[in-house]
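Usage example:
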Amino acid sequence: MAFDAVLNLTPTGVAIITLSGELDASVADKFRSEIQKAADQGARRLVLMVKDLVYMASAGLRVLIFAKQKMGSKVDLYLVEPQEAIREVITMTGFVQSVIVLDEYNAAEIESV
Amino acid sequence: MDALTLPGTLDSLTTIRNYVREMGEKAGLDRKALYRLNLAVDEIATNIVTHGYEDAGLEGDIVISSHFQPSVLTIQLEDTSQEYNPYKLEKPGDLDKPINERPIGGLGVFLAVRGVDEFRYEHVNGRNLHTFMVKIPSSQTQSS
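Running the assembly step on the lines above writes:
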């Protein structure tokens, strides 16, 4: 399943990136460049919509590290609706304590920065 | 089982995952075990391409093969890249640390080793051999 990453920036400065398909080392740069765009536009929060992301290698985790380092450690990073296997990797690697995992999109929480 | 010879580039990763998925399904692995095996092989293949071939200015192939035993599925990657020992690569660092304080590398090998029941690396006659072994649940073993 081909990978895609689409960035939307809300007027309140929330960067919402929708990820789908398989995220491996060959496509991680596309994800990274969307993060870069969000950072360049001064995003104050990063929300990753990952319901349709079926696979994520460590190349994807490295982009999350890049995002935190680029946007600053105070920028909250949300992961919305991760599939079970991806949730397991996030937990196993300890990333779970640096991201906020949500079971569903909660506009009230996410969009009020 | 038939081996596949692929160019040692990142473009081969999708084909490698499709191969592992096919073999894992044949072996009767459950979804979780199959995902972990796929991740393990994908991470090591990525390291072979980026560290073994690209960083060393080399070009070559990756050969992927599989072997079925009644209770174990074995996947093997073979390449001629620079001798590279996954155990000597950068460690992922403290997994309890906030991610913005982490080193950027080492996670791939960590996921590979954790994703299978047995992981082996050997360097034999100028070739790197990575072996991944996963136990097949007995109730799901094929009777063929």
